[in-house]
Structures are given as structure tokens and as C-alpha cells.
């Protein structure tokens, strides 16, 4: 059985998909637009739970029928979009990118895309914009819900468990997982079905309550319905403009779209805004094409960015939005409606087989079969550089002073390296010295955490429990078994460019000092100086690693010339202009270090000469960087010799 059609729910879908589309195409216009996905989750939870309970009550529920309906609803548009995305990817992507698209295709077709992206970088990072199937993470969440919830609900029905309590229990547990993991494990909280299920269960709770025998009539208390309608849309609008990608999301912030969507649905079709806004013909039409529109919009915008080599122009983004709407309507009119009108068991089997075949094709593409159109040894070298990220390969995972560390070497003196991934990038050099100069190599411990500079009080809007780790490893550095301490970070990421817009300093009195239009930068440098001075006073040999050049000019992909739509070749220009603002800030850091007893390690001195900085390997001309800021492991291993004074003893002899 299916619930009575409600045009206002299609209107709510229109708000959800429109918000996501606006955020992806024009992020500054609607900074919280990504919460549209959370609205979709509530709608799905409400409709699916209603369908399940009505079918269970009528005695005609079967798992086969339920999943056949899911295949009919999801597969036609999904298979088409996956095919188109994969085909265009073959035409424009580089070998490494096409391989990753294969993995994404398998995840999308097999409904575990969220778990694929959980193992990669976050939804809000820069590289996310060049993953054409990133948006399928939400489909993975929903499909995992469709597997889990019917089974549990069917069991609860047969066992005569109180459905409302079961639903509430699942929602509460999931919400607790969400708020407890969103700070220390932000990516997991975002992508995991365990921390997202409560959003679908919120819709499920509403469905259970509305189907309770004691529930009041849908037409009762009209004023309450109007209030629910206004409050619901108000909460969603509030979330659209207050939520930011830099906040800990979902967490508590997700309550805005979730409670807003619940309130809108609870208002019913006669709530004032539901009736006159959400049930508007244009809104309903957008809602009807919302699923294919969601599927089409992101690959188009992502490929536009990939082809442009950066953010596409406003005109191109507008064109991609229009193309998304057109393709969504064509898909709805000629694919989805055709399947709905001509559905047969053979067609169902064909759709399921198509999804399975795409999952298999994705595996083959991931393994390098076939290679994309842009396939050459030089292009492959660039692709290889972007994938080279095993900085801690060969290290021993260990514990030191209760802290997780990576260890290598067996020298007479112990050195502890603290900082973010720009300290981690030098791990291959430490391993290489342990192999080539074992008599002089120190015992090296890396205690790093991504996006966590060794500056007490420095925070960013996207902070993920950095402070606790930072405090613990700085205390560890004071322990007697540590002889030398190396501190470093992507200083320019925090203090230059766009960094000051999101970073700030919190003093001992918990007063926030912004970097931008405030004194946060001066206080952060003062805090760094105090750390260096305290370590020096404890008779440690202290090193401060200044930043290496970073920026789009150092992105390996920037070494590719030509058009992705035509021919491509790798540039022979092995250098890029020296970033003056970064060099100036490094000079400021050098003053802080020298004033507080630390020795400076200056990568710029080795990487840059005469206003130009290295971006290619000295031996074979392949990229020296993995991305816009990190030196690739192969470069660090062989050429980051400026790190050697911190990693080697002057006298030979081990323990």
C-alpha cells in the first residue's frame, strides 16, 4: 500500500533539491544549501515508514515487493547517470582520475558510495569538487536504511514490540552517535549511516505517530497546522543561512533542517505555506523531477570544474544548472515514466542486472581496464604523483607517553616531530635516513594530526578535536626521553591567503580573537613563541620547520597544458613564481624562532632561487608535489635534505 499523494511533499522536495543545487553552483549565495540533503532524509524516512506500516497493517507486505519498488524508483535514472558520467570521464579524465571514478561508480551502483568517500577526504574539501559522483553518498545512506529498517520494522511487527518505542530508540541512539562523533571523527559523522539514521527516523517517528489509532484527524486544529507549516519552513530557511561547511555538521546543527522538515510534513497539505507555496504547480513540478535533478547536477558541475581547471565562470555554472534541469525533465518524462508504465519482471531483472554490471565495470576501471583517452606516460606520471600519499609506509605504529605515534630508527637520541600533515610529509625522509645512515639516524617519532598546528589556542571553524591531541603531544615533548623536538605546519594555510577568514585564537579567558580584522595572528605567534621557549628551557634541541611553497601553481595538474576536451601534454616548465606573502610570513616565523631559542629549517632556501620555486622532480621532471601543498613522498625521501640536521646525530653509533 502507498500513502495518499501529497503535492506539498513534492514542494518540500523542490526546496531540498533547489538548496543543494544553489549551494553547489553558487555557494556564496546559499552557504547552508547542503542541508537540503537532510530534508530529503526526513521525507524518505516518513514515506518509507508509512508504506511499510500500512502494508504490514493490511497484511500484504513482502520484502520482495518492497525491494522491487525500490529498484523501479531508483535504478532507471541512476543507471543512466552512471553510464553518462563514466563515458564522459573516459573522454576527459586522466588515468588516476578515471581509476578513482571507477571506484566511485562501483560505490554508487552498489549503494556504498558513502563508505567509499568516508575513506577519502571530506565532503567540504577542495578535491571534493572534482569527484563527479560524490553526491551519491546520500543515496548510499538511504539505501542502507532501506535494507536495515524494513527488516527491523518487520521483526518488531511480528514480535508485537511497541513500534513507537523501537523507532524512538533507534533515533536516539543514532543521534547520540552523531553528536559524540562529529568533533573527533567529522568525516565518519558525516558519511556513516549510524550517525545519519536519526534523520530518517525523525520522519519515521512522524509516520508512526500519524498512524497511531489515537491520532487526531488531519483536519483537526487548523491553526496548529498553520503554525507547524510556518515554523517548519522557518527552521529550514534559518538552517540555509546559518549553517556553514566550517561548522561541526551534522551534529546539533542538523536539527534545524530535520525538525523543520518534520514540522512541514506534520502540518499536512492544508498548512498555510504547504497549501499556497509548497503545493504551487512550479514547486510540485520541480519536486517531481527532484531525483534525476539531484543525480544530474553534480556530475555536470564537477566536470565543468575539471575541464576549466578551477572554478568555472558564472555563465558556465548557470548553463550547467539549466542543463541539469533539462536532463532531469527528459529523464523523468522518457525514462522514469516509461519504466513506470511498462514495468515487467523482465524489465526489473534488466534494471538490477544493469546496476550489477555497472558495479563490475567500475571495478575494472579502477584496476585500469580500459585506460582513458588521455593516456600517455607523461600524463600517467602526473596522475601517479597525485595518488602518492603513503607517507607513513614502513613506519612502526607505536605508543609513546600514552599517545599514538609513528616510529622509525634505533638511534641513541630521540626526536619528536609535532604538527599537521606538512610535518607528516617528511616521514619518508626519516625512513630513508634510517635505511642509508643507520649509525647516525636518530630514533624518530611522528605525532601529527591533520589540520592541527602546534600552536595552543589556534582554532578554525572546521576544528576536529585538535586541541586535546595538541596539548597531549606538547606535554609529551617535555618528557625526559625526548632529546629533540621538531615543530612545523602549513603555516600559510592558517596565516595567509584565505586562512585568516576561518582561523582564530582563543586566549586563556576563552575570549575569541579573530585573525581577520583582529589581533589573533599576533597572539598566535606569541603562543608559538612561548611553546618554543618552554621546550628550550627544558634543555631540548628545538627546530621550527617553516612552510614550503603552496598554492595552485604547485598542483601537479597545473603542469598539464592543452584542453581536456581536445589534446593534452605535460609542460616542461619545472618552476613556479615564489609566493611573496608566504616568504614574508616565513621571515616573521624565523624571528619568532630565533627569539625563543629554536633553530630554523627553511624549505624555501632549498626549493626556491631567483624568485622561482621548484615544482618538478630534479631527476625525471615529474611533479614534486602531490597536490597544491604537500611534497610527494618520493621527493621528500630523496631530496628533502634540509630536514637532515633534525633527524641525524653528528656522532656515529647507535644504541
Automatic annotation (TrEMBL):
Give the transmembrane region(s). Answer: 12-29, 35-53, 74-93, 134-156, 163-182, 248-266, 278-296, 316-335, 347-369
Q: Has keyword Phosphoprotein?
A: no
BP-aspect Gene Ontology terms? lipopolysaccharide biosynthetic process
GO terms under cellular component: membrane
Give start and end of each SGNH domain.
Answer: 408-641
Say yes or no: keyword Membrane present.
yes
Where is the Acyltransferase domain positioned along the sequence? 8-333
Q: Keyword annotations for this protein?
A: Acyltransferase, Membrane, Transferase, Transmembrane, Transmembrane helix
What does the record give under GO molecular function?
acyltransferase activity, transferring groups other than amino-acyl groups
Q: Which domain of life is it from?
A: Bacteria
The record, for PANTHER family, names:
ACETYLTRANSFERASE, ACYL_TRANSF_3 DOMAIN-CONTAINING PROTEIN
Protein's recorded name? Acyltransferase family protein
Q: Which organism is it from?
A: Variovorax paradoxus
Amino acid at each position: 500500500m502507498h500513502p495518499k499523494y501529497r503535492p506539498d511533499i513534492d514542494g518540500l522536495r523542490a526546496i531540498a533539491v533547489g538548496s543543494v543545487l544553489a549551494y553547489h553552483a553558487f555557494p556564496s549565495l546559499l552557504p547552508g544549501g547542503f542541508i537540503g540533503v537532510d530534508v530529503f532524509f526526513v521525507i524518505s524516512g516518513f514515506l518509507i515508514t508509512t508504506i511499510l506500516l500500512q502494508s504490514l497493517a493490511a497484511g500484504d507486505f513482502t520484502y520482495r515487493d518492497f525491494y522491487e519498488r525500490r529498484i523501479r524508483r531508483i535504478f532507471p535514472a541512476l543507471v543512466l547517470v552512471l553510464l553518462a558520467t563514466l563515458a564522459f570521464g573516459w573522454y576527459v579524465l586522466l588515468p588516476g582520475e578515471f581509476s578513482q571514478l571507477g571506484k566511485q561508480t562501483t560505490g554508487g551502483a552498489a549503494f556504498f558510495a558513502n563508505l567509499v568517500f568516508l575513506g577519502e577526504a571530506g565532503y567540504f574539501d577542495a578535491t571534493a569538487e572534482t569527484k563527479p559522483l560524490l553526491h551519491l553518498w546520500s543515496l548510499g545512506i538511504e539505501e542502507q536504511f532501506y535494507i536495515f529498517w524494513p527488516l527491523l520494522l518487520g521483526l518488531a511487527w511480528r514480535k508485537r514490540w511497541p513500534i513507537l518505542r523501537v523507532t524512538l530508540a533507534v533515533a536516539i541512539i543514532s543521534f547520540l552517535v552523531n553528536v559524540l562523533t562529529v568533533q573527533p571523527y567529522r568525516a565518519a559523522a558525516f558519511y556513516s549511516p549510524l550517525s545519519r539514521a536519526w534523520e530518517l527516523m525523525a520522519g519515521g517517528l512522524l509516520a508512526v505517530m500519524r498512524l497511531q489509532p489515537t491520532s487526531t484527524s488531519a483536519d483537526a486544529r487548523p491553526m496548529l497546522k498553520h503554525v507547524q507549516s510556518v515554523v517548519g519552513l522557518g527552521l529550514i530557511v534559518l538552517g540555509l543561512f546559518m549553517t556553514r561547511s566550517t561548522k561541526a555538521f551534522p551534529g546539533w546543527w542538523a536539527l534545524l533542517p530535520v525538525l523543520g522538515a518534520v514540522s512541514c510534513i506534520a502540518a499536512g497539505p492544508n498548512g498555510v505555506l504547504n497549501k499556497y507555496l509548497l503545493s504551487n504547480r512550479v514547486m510540485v513540478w520541480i519536486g517531481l523531477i527532484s531525483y534525476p535533478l539531484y543525480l544530474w547536477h553534480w556530475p555536470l558541475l564537477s566536470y565543468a570544474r575539471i575541464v576549466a581547471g578551477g572554478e568555472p565562470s558564472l555563465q558556465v555554472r548557470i548553463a550547467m544548472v539549466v542543463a541539469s534541469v533539462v536532463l532531469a525533465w527528459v529523464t523523468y518524462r522518457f525514462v522514469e515514466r516509461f519504466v513506470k508504465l511498462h514495468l515487467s519482471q523482465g524489465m526489473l531483472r534488466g534494471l538490477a542486472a544493469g546496476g550489477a554490471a555497472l558495479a563490475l565495470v567500475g571495478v575494472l576501471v579502477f584496476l585500469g581496464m580500459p585506460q582513458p583517452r588521455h593516456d600517455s606516460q607523461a600524463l600517467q606520471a602526473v596522475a601517479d604523483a597525485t595518488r602518492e600519499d603513503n607517507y607513513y609506509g614502513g613506519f612502526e605504529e607505536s605508543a609513546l607517553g600514552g599517545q599514538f605515534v609513528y616510529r622509525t630508527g634505533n638511534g641513541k637520541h630521540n626526536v619528536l616531530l609535532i604538527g599537521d600533515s606538512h610535518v607528516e610529509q617528511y616521514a619518508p625522509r626519516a625512513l630513508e635516513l634510517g635505511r642509508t645512515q643507520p649509525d647516525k639516524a636518530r630514533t624518530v617519532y611522528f605525532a601529527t594530526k591533520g589540520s592541527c598546528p602546534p600552536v595552543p589556542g589556534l582554532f578554525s571553524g572546521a576544528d576536529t578535536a585538535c586541541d586535546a591531541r595538541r596539548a597531549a603531544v606538547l606535554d609529551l615533548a617535555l618528557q625526559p626521553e625526548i632529546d629533540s623536538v621538531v615543530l612545523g605546519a602549513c603555516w600559510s594555510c592558517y596565516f595567509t591567503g584565505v586562512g585568516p577568514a576561518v582561523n582564530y585564537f582563543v586566549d586563556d579567558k576563552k575570549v575569541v580573537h579573530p585573525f581577520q580584522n583582529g589581533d589573533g595572528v599576533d597572539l598566535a605567534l606569541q603562543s608559538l613563541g612561548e611553546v618554543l621557549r618552554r621546550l628550550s628551557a627544558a634543555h631540548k634541541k628545538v627546530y621550527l620547520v617553516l612552510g614550503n611553497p603552496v598554492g595552485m601553481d604547485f598542483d601537479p595538474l597545473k603542469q598539464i597544458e592543452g584542453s581536456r576536451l581536445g589534446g593534452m601534454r605535460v609542460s616542461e616548465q619545472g618552476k613556479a613564481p615564489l609566493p611573496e606573502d608566504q616568504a614574508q610570513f616565513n621571515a616573521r616565523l624565523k624571528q619568532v624562532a630565533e627569539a625563543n631559542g629554536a633553530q630554523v629549517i627553511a624549505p624555501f632556501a632549498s626549493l626556491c632561487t631567483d624568485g622561482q620555486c621548484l615544482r618538478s622532480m630534479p631527476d625525471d621532471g615529474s611533479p614534486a608535489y602531490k597536490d597544491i601543498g604537500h611534497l610527494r613522498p618520493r621527493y621528500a625521501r630523496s631530496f628533502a635534505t634540509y630536514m637532515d640536521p633534525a633527524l641525524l646525530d653528528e656522532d656515529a653509533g647507535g644504541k
